[in-house]
Structure formats: structure tokens, C-alpha cells
Amino acid sequence: MNRGTVVTEALDLLDEVGLEAVSTRRLAKRLGVEQPSLYYHFKTKKDLLAAMAEVAMAPHADAPLPSPESDWREWFLENSRSFRRTLLTRRDGARLHAGSTPTGDLDRIRSKMAFLVGSGVPERDAQMAMLAAGRFTVGCVLEEQADVDAPHSEDLPDGVPVIDHEEAFEAGLALILGGLERHTAGGKGLRERTSGPTPP
Description:
Blueprint lengths: L2 H15 L6 H8 L13 H12 L1 H4 L10 H17 L4 H6 L7 H13 L4 H24 L18 H22 L3 H5 L6
């Protein structure tokens, strides 16, 4: 048994029983080992969940970085779509990601930010837009994965539409991008627009 095996089995367990039911006791039984032996690889359950989140995010983390000639608007949309697709590949994927602290690749984040800034997006706007899009995506997937018993249209009161999760995600993402485009076209960054007199 090695660290990779533990994480793989833990993710399979997650898909089977959901995040609430994942425990070191249950995982140890699945692996055919005593529970304390897991602590050789992970000191706490939080450490295990962080490793699970990092591995679960690999499809998004390994996606190609934008090239200098890429259209930053198209990339911004696809980056968020890739994030959403990856969160949806695992049961409770959004909760796993939101409730842990995966280390991620800081060089990739810097590359993405440098691409946006190099494309003419003010740095502060780029930072806030990426943060907003990320949190919006996690929130959308949290709702989608919690909506396992989605009502049919005939079960809803008159005038209340059934939510199409992908359609709602795309609409919200377009609004975030639209705001970023307007800020960029305006020629002033968020820091300039929101800065006031220096407090005494």
C-alpha cells in the first residue's frame, strides 16, 4: 500500500458513498488494513481530503495553458467550463474541493494571470474575475450535485421553471465575462475605479 493507492481507493469510496460517509475507518476496511496504518501516509483526515481534492482536480490542472495568441475571452470561458466538468466527475466533487486546501500549481496560476494581463486585462480585474468565476463555478456545482431529486415541471407551482444547471451556469459565466470586458474596454482597472482618498 502506498500513498497513491490510498487516494485512489478513497476517491472510489467517495463515488460510492458520498463525502459524508467517507471515513478513515471505512477506508482502512476497504484497503484491508488497520486504521492506524493510514496515518503513515496522512496524519489527519483533512490531509487525506486535500490529497483527494488535488488528484480529483487533475483533469483541469493538466489542461493546456493558453498561448499568447489565444483569445482571452474564449479562454476565460473554457477555463471555467473545464473547472466545472472536473468538479462534476466526482460525487460531491464541489464539496470536496471547497472543504479542503489542495496545494495546486502556483506556476500555472501565475501563467494564467500573466496571459490575461498580457492580453490587456488590468491585473486587479483579472485577479477578481478569476476569483469570482471560480467561486461561482463551485457554487453552481454544489447546487447541481445537491439537486439529485430535481422536481419535474409538473411538480412545481405555476410560473416556476425547472432549472437547467448548464444553462444557468453559462448565463452567469457570460455575465461575469461581460463585466470584465466592460472594465477592460473602459481603460481603468478595478483598483483605480474603487480607490478613494487615502484615510488619515
